[in-house]
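Dear H.,

Thanks for agreeing to be a second pair of eyes. The structure we're designing against is below in token form, covering all 306 positions.
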């Protein structure tokens, strides 16, 4: 799909994302618009579960482009992120050449380190040409990696190229749309952020989260959706180790409907709290009378919402 159709205006970007059920405010749509229009990487930071990864999925679906996801973790290296050589195939070629005596040493080495024996990992795959157009390269949870890998990414994000010692520099003719996410478990170096458009993805306000629940879980209905959102917003006001994100709100709504619940009660809240909170300390703190108090406050909040 033609990218220009979706980058003509900020409103067009909002509409594009809404078509895939991703609801965002104008400030986020503006940042996405600029990243697409100026072909710059987009760096999204925020709490886990606020919808950072979902933006990349929404853009991929809207544009009909391939999504290539690099899930980051501690110890990630170029062999897993960029490329590696197919050593088993190389060994077979060496044994075959030795048995037949068909290739001299220099020619064999040149053949072994050609693209025929190169295995592309997410970053190198994203730099290749794709029939449907430049793909979406999602570098997810970059904060889980270490500084050497960050330093390596500078070349990729600046020039959309990688250097392979045996082959030289491989540069993308049609650079991918790059989206990086971070849960901010550690600070990312300024040199990496400077190469991107930055946006902090915060928890949505009440009305936006209500709209999200109504879109993602339409069976909940208006009144029950208000109760759910009011409870989650009240819960976020507590001193929790991990506040529930939008993803948890959606999961909780689906859990409640699966139990045929149409109204929140202390018992229901207690039995399903594991859908919202993922740490024992948080569950222990919110249990009992505390959850009942939160439910009472949420009920009052839901009544006040027009």
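And this is the sequence the design step returned. I haven't edited it by hand at all.
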């Amino acid at each position: 799909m033609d990218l220009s159709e979706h980058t003509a205006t900020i409103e067009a970007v909002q509409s594009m994302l809404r078509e895939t059920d991703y609801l965002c405010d104008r400030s986020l749509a503006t940042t996405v618009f600029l990243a697409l229009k100026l072909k710059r990487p987009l760096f999204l930071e925020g709490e886990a579960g606020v919808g950072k990864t979902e933006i990349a999925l929404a853009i991929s679906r809207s544009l009909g482009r391939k999504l290539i996801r690099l899930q980051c973790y501690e110890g990630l290296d170029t062999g897993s992120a960029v490329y590696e050589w197919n050593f088993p195939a190389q060994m077979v070629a060496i044994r075959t050449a030795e048995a037949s005596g068909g290739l001299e040493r220099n020619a064999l080495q040149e053949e072994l380190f050609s693209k025929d024996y190169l295995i592309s990992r997410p970053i190198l795959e994203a730099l290749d040409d794709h029939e449907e157009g430049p793909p979406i390269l999602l570098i997810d949870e970059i904060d889980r990696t270490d500084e050497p890998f960050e330093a390596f990414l500078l070349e990729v994000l600046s020039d959309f190229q990688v250097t392979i010692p045996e082959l030289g520099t491989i540069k993308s003719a049609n650079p991918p749309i790059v989206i990086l996410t971070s849960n901010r478990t550690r600070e990312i170096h300024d040199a990496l952020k400077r190469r991107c458009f930055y946006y902090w993805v915060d928890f949505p306000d009440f009305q936006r989260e209500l709209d999200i629940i109504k879109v993602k879980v339409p069976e909940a209905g208006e009144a029950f959706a208000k109760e759910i959102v009011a409870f989650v917003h009240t819960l976020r006001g507590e001193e929790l180790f991990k506040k529930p994100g939008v993803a948890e709100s959606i999961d909780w709504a689906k859990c409640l409907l699966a139990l045929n619940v149409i109204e929140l009660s202390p018992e229901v809240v207690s039995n399903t709290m594991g859908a919202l909170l993922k740490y024992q300390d948080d569950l222990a703190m919110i249990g009992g009378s505390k959850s009942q108090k939160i439910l009472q406050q949420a009920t009052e909040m839901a009544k006040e919402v027009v």
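Two observations from my side: The chain has 16 helices and nine strands. The chain has a mean pLDDT of 91.

Warmly,
E.
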